[in-house]
Amino acid sequence: MRPPAIAIDGPAASGKSTVAKRIAQELGYTFIGTGAMYRAVTWYLLQQGINPQNTSAVVAALPGIPLSFGKDGAFSTVVYEGRVLTTELTEKATNDNVSVVAAIPEVRALLVEKQREYNKREAVVMEGRDIGTVVFPDSRFKYFVTASEEVRAARRAAEGITDSIAERDKKDAQRACAPLVQAEDALLVDTSDMSIDEVVNFIVADIRSKLA
Ligand code: DC
Known about the structure:
48% of the residues lie in helices and 18% in strands. By secondary structure, it is α/β, with parallel strands linked by helices. It has one domain: Rossmann fold (3-Layer(aba) Sandwich). A five-stranded parallel sheet has the order 2-6-1-7-8, sandwiched between helices. Strand 4 (75-80) and strand 5 (83-84) form a beta hairpin. Helix 1 packs across helix 9 (196-211), helix 2 (34-47) crosses helix 4 (92-102) and helix 2 packs across helix 5. The radius of gyration is 16 Å and the shape is globular. The structure holds 2'-deoxycytidine-5'-monophosphate. 2'-deoxycytidine-5'-monophosphate (DC) is lined by residues 12, 34-35, 38-39, 98-99, 102, 128-130, 168, 172.
């Protein structure tokens, strides 16, 4: 039997990444941030002077893409030329182009395969947009974490990140391939008026009750 895969999906700045990391720590599972994988591909393409709008050029670049998706302790990492990518992933150019790259079916197919590989050997808490709908549709543990648009904008500003999240969410929700949508069997968690502890405790309690 495959180890458990906890799917945490939701829009940008809903708090899902913070929450997913904490849930992984509580359960002793590995945290996998899939947004970083889409961001790394986007950063790499821009670095190579490939226009993300040029779908055939993007698809042609994918087979030899020199990114490795591994982990450092209990957290997923993306490594390029021997170093873990960090600030590159939240550069303005990366933010501005990631939704275009993430809409390309060939990009998604490649990354979904890498995401499933993580769960072959270990239990994971995986955070993204399509984890419950596409990556692990048979998971018993699916959570759709959201918050009001005002709360999400305020959280992003507090992190010092200027990014038009509303526009990005719109693109992510409207794309044809694996759009941002709540899985039918996912539990909706609106975090607008909840503390991080409350959200973590609520989801961990639900997971534990299902594992018992
Ligand atoms: O979670 P994030 O903001 O770092 O994600 C960056 C972008 O990557 C997001 O705008 C849409 C895309 N993404 C996706 O399409 N599917 C995922 N599973 C994760 C992220």
